[in-house]
Amino acid sequence: MWLTNSSIGRKVVMSVTGLFLILFLTFHALMNAVSLISFDAYEAVCEFLGANWYALVGTAVLAAGFVIHIIYAFWLTLQNRKARGTDRYEVSARPKTVEWASQNMLVLGIIVLCFLLLHLFHFWAKMQLPEIMGEAPLRGKEALELAFSQVWVLPVYLIGFVAIWFHITHGFWSAFQSLGAANEKWIERFKCIGWWWATCVMALFAIEACYFTWFFAF
Amino acid sequence: MEETINKTAQPVIDSKIPEGPIAEKWTNYKAHQKLVNPANKRRLDIIVVGTGLAGASAAATLGEMGFNVLNFCIQDSPRRAHSIAAQGGINAAKNYQNDGDSIYRLFYDTVKGGDYRAREANVYRLAEVSNNIIDQCVAQGVPCAREYGGLLANRSFGGAQVSRTFYAKGQTGQQLLLGAYSSLNRQIQAGKVKSYNRYEMHDVVIVDGRARGIIAKNLVTGKLERFAAHAMVIATGGYGNTYFLSTNAMGCNCSAAMACYRKGAMFANPAYVQIHPTCIPVHGDKQSKLTLMSESLRNDGRIWVPKDIEDAKRLQAGEIKGSDIPEDKRDYYLERRYPAFGNLVPRDVASRAAKERCDKGYGVNNTGLAVFLDFSEAINRLGIDVIRQRYGNLFDMYEEITDVNPGELANEIDGEKYYNPMMIFPAIHYTMGGIWVDYELQTSVKGLFAIGECNFSDHGANRLGASALMQGLADGYFVLPYTIQNYLSDQITVPHFSTDLPEFEEAEKRVQANLDNLMSIGGKRSVDSIHKELGHIMWEYVGMGRTKEGLQTALTKLKELRHEFETNLFIPGTQEGMNVELDKAFRLRDFITMGELIAHDALNRNESCGGHFREEYQTEEGEAKRDDENYFYVACWKYNGDDETAPTLIKEPLHYEAIKVQTRNYKN
Amino acid sequence: MEKNISFKLKVWRQKSPKAQGQFVTYDVNDIPTDTSFLEMLDIVNEQLIEKGEEPIVFDHDCREGICGMCSLYVNGHPHGPATGATTCQLYMRRFNDGDTITVEPWRSAAFPVIKDLMVNRNAFDQIQQAGGYVSFNTGGAQDANAIPISKVAADEAMDSASCIGCGACVAACKNGSAMLFVSAKVSQFALLPQGRAEAKKRVKAMLSKMDELGFGNCTNTGACAAECPKNIKLSNISRLNREFLGAKCSD
Q: Which of B337, B521, B627, C209 lies 20 to 30 Å from B285 when distance is taken between CA atoms?
């Protein structure tokens, strides 16, 4: 199967799952934004995404996206380290045009993964999971309050957002490059779009997290 | 060893030129030559040494035809051969520009450019197949330069009045070589060509008077290996590095050619060495190599020195720069001396003119050995953008090396803008002489063929720009694959050779003894220090301006140098594994022999023609003076058993039927 | 202006492919700044030979930036700190008096060290042999002007074809990927009508050979293009991906 056997196939898997996750984050940020306007409306969104069959299917697909993206990331990194050979360079320098993020995607990814686990513990484990288990879930606002009433959560989340921002600024255009959609002009355009996209989405998340902390902790 | 030589090389010259009018000779030849049928081709092995344009194209084509080919190169990949460095372009008589070009005109220009010392029939064939080469390369996917309409573009080059040069940016050699390399790769993949990289041929093995194999050294392991075949092709380039400083790659050497020479292949016209006019001048004694600036620069660049000797002196002292000298104080000496061709005169003429000015004291750098190549007029006329588009990469290259940007505005005098000029000086570039071959490209040893720069055949005493690529590919794609069959047709019953034959045994022993000998000298001097000394002797006495006394001095000095080499050489390390110094020493020994050969030939040729200029033989205006009555021949040199004995001269008289021999004229 | 500089040269020395290598530091004095980097190594080698030691082995040939033979990872950059130039086109005026200059071989599993700074790049030849050609036999070509090719396509193909196969892209890539090298050849042929006929076969063959030889996966860091001495563009890799996906989708 060329999606596992060939290097370009593996890149395609990374890029497709990556783009899917970026899309998910975008929706996530927009749905959270509802709470900035009205917590009642936010509850409706939470209910909509409860243990309904469509939400469950969505969650499963989303989880698969994450898992595949992460497994491939580790797999590719192992292969790439092997390809690098046993001896490392004594001195190495990063050329100006090479983004820092692009050479540290795995590290960024691991930070994001840690953040994700914390985030799942804060919300999914208290909302959708109990519902699936047939127990009473927390309501949206309750879950937010539980998490953000602790002040340390905000800086941890912000660190997570920054990591995701770096991860996406490279991942976004890289995905299009891997899919063969880029050329000399479009590489720059995708970089630009990716930067703005990542900045807008992550800024929205950051505003939301700050708002919740302000609302629930003070 | 002597016995073999006496058996193989007879002093009878048969150039095997086919019958008929010049335009029909090649057609006639092909119509009547013997061929080898496809089933029999599979039974025949051919060794091709070298992977430049000639070697790679020959190996690929022979593989396509069905022969089993063994292909050798000293570099780490066939793609590294020095053909890759050719910048300007490749000639072909396509007449796409509708400027009156034809096969005859290309033929005529080449013979005239070669100062009437080439073999007519060979040159005509070259012009004839030139068109096929372009078709071939375009079909290979070589990205030749094109016009907006989608058709191929041409530029003009020295020595021609038509635009017939096809090019791919300033990297034509690279693209053509990569084209040949791609065809070669296809055959390697198909199993028809076996490629041996980092192998150096050390000797030819002769069995019953025919070339049947080689002893080659695996440069990585340091071990000698034997290879056998039915026929052999040498495509190992020229001997320019005899002069130490040249535009050739560091690895270019003449050892394979010398091995053939020692085994009885005659060496023709070694004195014809081309000195390229547009190289970056020598800057110090630590320099290892000279950098060529493409001849295409002469399309828009104007060559000059100051009119006043005072200005030249101030330039040499570093008090003023070239851009400080106004238009009316400049001597555009090529335009002055050769109004019809101007800056586009052939290379030998341009080089000599530069030397003449510098000898008179008009040189423009601190050593007094440089002239200016100026783009001010072209930049003022066309704008810097157009000029940069044409030569930008060359300007950048020049700036990296010299720290001067030729496209930079440097001065304004009376409203006239002056840009930084380049400094250039002639340097050894190409060798027209080479192993003697007949019309079939076969040397005087049966079954041993020589193609490309390695042979002497097509350029006479001087090669025109963009003709080297043409000859290499013509030989490799379109000539040798035919003519070699004429030789192989009666070899089909000969089985594959064993490398255990006593001839192989003996040859390997000799090669090993030679290497042992080099290792055991145990003197004090490095290979390079002796090579540099060789270069100095060659450039001083056997360079651009030669005299009888100078050449005799050279021969004496070379003899001393050989002694120095044999008694005072030091090679560190062992023969085990890679030993680059040992490999260089092996080549240097042959360079010294080559140097003597050049000097012998130059001394014999009491005339000036093309790349060979004897100061005693010049007109009052300083132009080369040929002696057609006494020297209208190819000088073939036969080895006499050891390196110290002078070789024997054998003459191949030239016969011109299609062209009237006359004095070269680029003035009007 | 030209002057002389002195510096420390820290060089990787390794006797043979299997031997353990190490860095050796040499004091190099009074090198004129108009000396090229390789000429500087020549000078050091002459001094070593004078002392009876073995010279530093490095690949080099044309010394004008076109043969692709020279390599060397100088101060953390393949082909040294200059951009758009090979090591042989690097001049000492780029360095300062008192510097420590670290010289290493290309490091990649697919490019094993032969001796000192010389590596085996045979893998590149193998990739080309897998499909880097147009399949036709000598003599079978039609007239060169029979197929018009737009200047834009021809120029772009030329830019891709400028690759000298030196391996700097692999050396620069933290993943040891040869994508830029493969993409340059695939692009050249993909852009020209002559190469289209077997484009699908070619891209699959060359890529699978590249994977087989142990080169890494591209993660689009762009270090290859940034360090390429011939400025081969990153967009070639995108074209390679496109060609490959197209070929796979039409299987």
A: B521
List CB contacts (< 8 A) between A184 and chain C: 233, 235
**Tokens in use for C55?**
């010279």
Of the residues C114, C146, C177, the one at which a domain ends: C114
Task: Tell if the CB–CB gap between B181 and C50 is shorter than 8 Å.
Answer: no
Chain B residues inside the 8 Å CB shell of C91: 400-401, 403
**Residue B484 neighbours by CB distance under 10 Å:** 27
A residues 38..97 contacting C (CB < 8 A): 76, 79-80, 82-97
Q: What is the 3-state secondary structure (H, E, C) of B150-164?
A: CCECCECCCCCCCCC
Quick one: B387 and B265 in the same domain? no
Place of tokens 């890759």: B84
Question: Which B residues, 251 through 310, put their C-beta within 8 Å of a C-beta on chain C?
Answer: 251, 283-284, 286-289, 291-292
What does residue B225 show for φ and ψ, rounded to 5 degrees? -135, 155
Positive or negative, the CA dihedral B12, B17, B18, B19 is: negative
Q: Do B526 and C144 touch (CB under 8 A)?
A: no
pLDDT tens column, C48-69: 999 999 999 999 999 999 999 9
Domain limits at B372?
A: 277-427
Chain A residues inside the 8 Å CB shell of C210: 7
- Asked if residues B253 and B591 have their Cβ atoms less than 8 Å apart, the reply is yes
Query: CA dist B188 to B23, B422, B609, C128, Å?
Result: 36, 44, 43, 10
**What pairs with residue B373 in β-bridges?**
B303, B422
- What pLDDT tens digit does each residue of chain A (218 aa) get? 899 999 999 999 999 999 999 999 999 999 999 999 999 999 999 999 888 899 999 999 999 999 999 999 999 999 999 999 888 999 999 998 999 999 999 999 999 999 999 999 999 999 999 999 999 999 999 999 999 999 999 999 999 999 999 999 999 999 999 999 999 999 999 999 999 999 999 999 999 999 999 999 88
- Cβ separation of C239 and A180 shorter than 8 Å? yes
Q: Using CB atoms, which residue from B186, B287, B288 is nearest to C135?
A: B186
Task: Pick the residue from chain B with its C-alpha nearest to C111.
Answer: B76
Residues of chain C with Cβ-Cβ distance to A173 below 8 Å are 220
What number of other Cβ atoms are within 10 A of residue B602's Cβ?
Answer: 26
CA–CA gap between residue A51 and residue B497 (Å, rounded): 81
Q: Total domain count for chain A?
A: 1
Residue identified by tokens 């697919």 is C110
* B384 and B526 in a common domain: no
CATH number of the domain where residue A55 is located: 1.20.1300.10
- Dist. CA B85–CA B81, nearest whole Å: 8
* Chains contacting chain C through 3 or more C-beta pairs under 8 A: A, B
Q: How far is CA B504 from the centre of its chain?
A: 31
CA distance B456 to B466: 17
Restricting to C residues 165-224, those with a Cβ less than 8 Å away from any Cβ of A are 172, 174-177, 179, 207-208, 210-211, 214-223
**pLDDT tens-place string over residues A23-76:** 999 999 999 999 999 999 999 999 998 888 999 999 999 999 999 999 999 999
B337 catalytic per annotation = no
Asked if B636 and B650 touch (Cβ cutoff 8 Å), the reply is: yes
For residue B386, what is the domain's CATH number? 3.90.700.10
Contact C107 A102 (CB under 8 A): no
Q: How big is the CA angle at C79 (ends C93 and C181), to the nearest 5 degrees? A: 150
